[in-house]
Specification:
By secondary structure, the chain is α+β, with helices and mostly antiparallel strands. Helix content is 24%, strand content 20%. It has 4 helices and 11 strands. The strands form 4 sheets. The chain has a 5-stranded mixed beta sheet with strand order 1-5-3-10-4, sandwiched between helices. A two-stranded antiparallel ribbon has the order 2-11. Strand 6 and strand 7 form a beta hairpin. The radius of gyration is 16 Å and the shape is globular.
């Protein structure tokens, strides 16, 4: 039978550190998939299990689509350049590969974290690794979700938020990032976005 370990984390002003602390704690369990969901994203129980199974099947990153809470809501995840931005959620839609997943509703397989501990990553400043930080988090942790900057083909610099930086690190190690278009999420704000 399946079991879920629920580990809420509040009151940390740095989301990259919060997510990294939870991921480090996850690696201390025997669980195979870590799910992150923001408290302002509304989802159905069947969708929770859908992203868990998606992460298990792909042994990678698997998310549901949600939009930003803004005057002009747009997809919080990033499609590949040239891919149509429109996402139409219907029960029969299949998952698609995307470039970067937003972590408002995402499942990550253990293999991704373990590979990151041994991997080398390239950003605008060269090559780096993930090291255990013994200061700056109240307990030792690995900064899996640290932000970084990329230089793209056109020579422009692109700052990656903690979630997109995580996806970039995974992709550099050969993992894929998937979005399940059959999931319909609401992002709560002034109204459900």
């Amino acid at each position: 039978t399946e079991h879920v370990i629920f580990e809420p984390l509040w009151n940390d002003a740095l989301i990259a550190r919060s997510r990294s602390l939870l991921a480090t704690k996850f690696l201390e369990t025997d669980a195979d998939v870590m799910v992150i969901f923001d408290d302002d994203v509304v989802w159905n129980p069947q969708d929770f299990w859908k992203i868990v199974e998606g992460a298990r099947d792909t042994r990678s990153i698997y998310c549901g689509p949600h939009v930003t809470r803004s005057d002009k809501p747009h997809l919080a995840s990033r499609m590949f350049h040239g891919f149509p931005v429109e996402i139409y959620a219907t029960p029969n839609r299949r998952p698609i590969e995307i470039e970067y997943a937003a972590t408002g509703f995402v499942a990550i397989h253990r293999d991704v974290f373990q590979a990151m501990l041994a991997g080398d990553f390239s950003d605008a400043n060269g090559t780096h690794r993930i090291f255990e930080c013994v200061k700056g988090g109240g307990q030792p942790f690995y900064p899996f979700f640290a932000t970084f900057t990329l230089k793209d083909v056109a020579g422009d610099y692109h700052y990656l938020s903690e979630d997109w930086a995580f996806s970039e690190r995974a992709r550099q190690l050969g993992f894929k990032v998937w979005m399940d278009q059959s999931i319909i999420l609401e992002h709560m704000g002034w109204y459900p976005f």
